[in-house]
Write a structure and sequence with these properties.
By secondary structure, this protein is of the alpha/beta class. The chain is built from ten helices and 16 strands. It has two domains: 3-187 and 327-411, Zn peptidases (Aminopeptidase, 3-Layer(aba) Sandwich), CATH 3.40.630; 189-250 and 261-325, Alpha-Beta Plaits (2-Layer Sandwich), CATH 3.30.70.360. The longest helix has 24 residues, at 3-26. The model has no long low-confidence stretch (mean pLDDT 96).
């Protein structure tokens, strides 16, 4: 029996334990904010200790903890990466089960973080522990990072590990939910910015004949900026097919017309608006806050320049950048993607396809420093961050097997 066959044979025996481990992880309310990962980190470290694996805490700020473990000497070659933190659970009365119950109903495990991303994290942790116990001749360094800061940007989690600690693996496999039919190689960029408008206040009784209402001007700004989201942009040649397929997948999964073009277009949302001083005064000021997601081929500065040009003739406008990151991706022919495809074929009988995502993952922090980062994991997109978040138990088991074979294919 080959090592790969022995791995799968062993995996079946541990799958029930994996689901129990996942239930225990979901039952820990590792909500961010506030972001205290003390209990979740201890749960994971205790598990690794029982398997005889050295693990350390990385704690740039009290309570903001990542658990890091490594087998082999020299620079990390393959890192398994996932986050412990989850978004707030919201109104408990709108859940059909308690949000931190980890209940199993009709083949699904329910709870905040079940899909995003404690299922993928638990499968990665178990795969790391089981594989290292079966193979004492790992050819290249293998590491695990369970990080605690992804839901608020990852700056004290994955980015801290890459930038401050200098841990920059050749490959990073993140267990974020991609669905098992796809693996994500890149993500759109993002820019947040404010538009401030100044008007000329006068008594409301002589409006609109006199004065200049900043709120009215703000409506012009919103209309102009939203038009930018109707334009198609050119993506790098090597991503064209992936962008087309990713848009098709997004439309199918979410059932929203127009999403098939999302990876060739900007998205646009005005999420905050403030303005005026009193009902009977023409508004002397207004402020808008925008979120735009950026397709590959553009940069943050490209987008801000287009915004400036689109509203250049509106009086009293000031634009202030709040935050931004350019689009990023791992080349479609990455070896990590090829091995995931082969491993998934052995388990699922089909090869997942490379894709892009609209949101952000910690993959961007490692790509920034030269790592080839790929996202592949179980989960249901439709319920992520929503009520009754859940994950299909069979998908967790399948992901566990695929992770084991992927590890073996790269460091075995």
């Amino acid at each position: 029996m080959s090592l790969g066959e022995r791995i799968l044979d062993k995996a079946v025996r541990y799958e029930e334990d994996l689901i129990k481990f996942l239930q225990g992880l979901v039952r820990i309310p590792s909500v961010n904010p506030p972001g205290d990962m003390t209990e979740a980190a201890a749960y994971i470290k205790d598990f690794l200790d029982r398997w005889g694996l050295d693990a350390e805490y990385i704690e740039p700020r009290k309570g903001v903890i990542s658990v890091y473990s490594k087998v082999g000497s020299g620079p990390d070659y393959l890192m398994l990466n996932g986050h412990m933190d989850v978004v707030p659970e919201g109104d408990h009365d709108k859940w059909s089960v308690p949000p931190f119950s980890g209940e199993v109903i009709d083949g699904y495990l329910y709870g905040r973080g079940a899909s995003d991303m404690k299922a993928g994290l638990a499968a990665l942790i178990y795969a790391y522990a089981l594989y290292t116990s079966l193979n004492d001749k790992i050819s290249k360094p293998l590491s695990l990072a369970a990080v605690g800061d992804e839901e608020v940007g990852g700056r004290e989690g994955s980015l801290y590990i890459a930038r401050e600690m200098g841990i920059r693996p050749k490959y990073v496999l993140l267990g974020e939910p991609s669905t098992l039919g796809y693996y994500n190689i890149g993500e759109k960029g993002i820019v947040w910015y404010r538009v401030k408008l100044s008007g000329e206040p006068v008594h409301a009784s002589i409006s609109p004949y006199a004065g200049r209402n900043a709120i009215v001007e703000a409506t012009k700004v919103i209309e102009r900026i939203y038009r930018l989201a109707e334009r198609d942009f050119k993506v790098p040649d090597e991503l064209v097919e992936v962008a087309i397929n990713s848009g098709r997948k997004a439309r199918e999964l979410m059932g929203v017309d127009g999403l098939e073009k999302i990876f060739f277009r900007l998205s646009c949302n005005v999420g905050m608006i403030e303005g005026g001083v009193k009902t009977n005064v023409v508004a002397p000021n207004a402020k808008l806050e925008f979120d735009m997601r950026i397709p590959h081929g553009l940069t943050v500065e490209h987008v801000l320049e287009m915004v400036r040009e689109s509203i250049a003739d509106v009086e009293g406008v000031e634009i202030e950048k709040v935050a931004g990151e350019d689009p990023n991706y791992t080349r479609p022919d990455t070896e990590l993607g090829r091995v995931i495809e082969e491993s998934a074929y052995k388990v699922l009988g089909m090869r997942p396809e490379p894709s892009l995502v609209m949101g952000a993952t910690d993959g961007r922090h490692f790509r920034m420093y030269g790592s080839e980062a790929v996202v592949y994991g179980p989960g249901e997109w439709e319920r992520i961050h929503g009520y009754d978040e859940r994950v299909k138990i069979d998908d967790v088991r399948r992901a566990f097997r695929i992770y084991l074979l992927t590890i073996d294919g790269l460091v075995g």
